[in-house]
Amino acid sequence: MNPRQFALGIAFVALVTVPYWMPGIYYVNVASQILFYAIFAVGLNVLVGYAGLVSLGHAGLFGVAAYATGFMLQSGYGHPVSIIVALIVGIASMAVYAVLALRSTGIGFIMITLALGEILWGLAYRWISLTGGDNGISLHTRPEPFGYSLASPSTFYYTTLVVFVLSVAAMAVFVRSPFGAALKGTRDQPRRMNALGYHVWLIRFWACLMSGLLTSVAGILFVYYTQFISPQTLALTSSAEVLLMVISGGAGTLLGPIVGAALVVTVKTVVSGFIERWNFLLGAIFVAIVILMPEGLVPGSTRLWRLAWRQMEQKLKAVPAKDTLGPPP
Amino acid sequence: MTFWLVLAVNSVTFGGLLFLLSAGFSLIFGLMRIPNLTHGSLFMLGAYIGATFVLGIGGVKLNFWLAAILATLAVAALGALAERLLLRRLPGDQLAQVLVTLGLSFMAADLCLMVWGGDPLNVTTPPELEGFVRYGVLAFPMYRLAIIVIAIIIAIGLWLLLDRTRLGAMIRAGVDDPDMARVVGIRVSQLFTIVFALGAGLAAFAGIIGGPILSVYPGLDQDMLPLALVVVILGGTGSLLGSFVGSIIVGFIYNFGQALLPELAYFVLFLPMLLVLILRPQGLFGRHVP
Predict the structure, then answer these.
(1) CB contact under 8 A, A287 and B103
(2) Residues B2-279, CATH architecture
(3) Domain chopping of chain A, boundaries
(4) What is the pLDDT of residues B89-124, one digit of tens each?
(5) How far is B104 from chain A (nearest CA, A)?
(6) Does pTM surpass 0.90?
(7) Which of B50, B56, B63, B255 has the fewest beta carbons closer than 10 A?
């Protein structure tokens, strides 16, 4: 068992026992938030990290899945139907995003996804007969799969944890699969991949759908958690927040977005208890990370750790070397 | 009939404001290859600073036009500063530059909320432009007509600057082929600062003269940025004519959409954008795909 597996094992045990060692229900709820935002960030990371396509409209998709759940429940459908419809609507919206935005890459992709995200925000805000406008949609119940009620914070936490573990496991398989390798190929060398006979557009399209699926799952968890959805969830700020999770943790790594989600949610929760100026801080962290630690916190601190380790090793080696010199004559 | 004519005049007025906003956005995009996501914030900052001067700071109330010029200069300086201190540190890394502008826009929005509070500021129209121009039974507010005239004057000025001066020729060279421009001895990075300041100033100016129509409120940046984005996607990047035509189209669609389909106004606005993206990805007057 190497140190990495050991650390992951400890993290897993810590996650499973959260409701027992956390000091209160409030913190269990924060842990649930971290988990579903982590799923969201992992979903965005499929595009940002592995496909090299930065989306600034993902909060729109997240919100669409949440609104679809709320709308279906409001119309009197049961939880299973609502969840399935929300997943379909979320993935279908992602497909529309992909068809339009994949016409370009790089900055063009950012601009188009940004514009599409703003359309969805505008619709949520203005199409009052469907979305309730600023008042949003409230949910009255959480689902009870097989009679297991999700009403209490700890049962909801465990459900989120199961979905989270499944999502991360799926990502781990995905990244190691031939498809994951091909996707990274289209990120680094699209023209060579094309010359090798890979359908670059189609690979990116499937990656988008994968991202859309994870984002929708996170959106549904979100709406069941807060039991409320309003246009604010779809705003550009939310897209930027999740992008910050991906980038701060380290895009293109499996664990990075999870660490980033934990960091951003914790800072946001702690900070908003003291001051109202979360957006200012969000912007400042964004600028600071982009300029000072562009590769993200996980790879960045790995790099610093390796550097420190190597220096320590050199010092250890240097010590006996000094001894052989003996005392000065 | 009256309804349609008034709506049309309002659309052209809004189109004029959008042109002032998006011309700089388009030039910055053309030259630096990044969508400047602080553009909405610059518009809002200009509006707030101008409004503060007009409403009185330290008991001194400034003339509307003097306030407009001062605020424009202040925001242009801020833009130049942001380019020099932050964007300059990330040469060639467009993604990082976009993210920095995004971060800055959040900071600016929150600062405005902190300084000016959440209530909208109402800027009165300058007294010399109050009243209406009457034409038969129709009456058009003088101020809205004045905005159209100002926008046209600035459009002509910008066109002369870009088409007839040495600086304009250098900017065009930088837009067309930055590497080649560097080779022939144009200091492209200096152009970045100039164009950024120019774009910031234009956006701020649009914010101030738009103040009496739109009023000044938190969230104004988020309302204007997508419009600038749509104009530039429609018209094509780095093209003045593209911004102009795009602004007028968006002005019409936005105003008519709000009057006829208020619930879907935002959605209607994006339909032409989608059409252009599908049929002509470089925009109506653009030369290269972003």
Answers:
(1) yes
(2) Orthogonal Bundle (1.10)
(3) 27-295, 301-329
(4) 777 777 788 888 888 988 888 888 888 887 888 887
(5) 6
(6) no
(7) B56
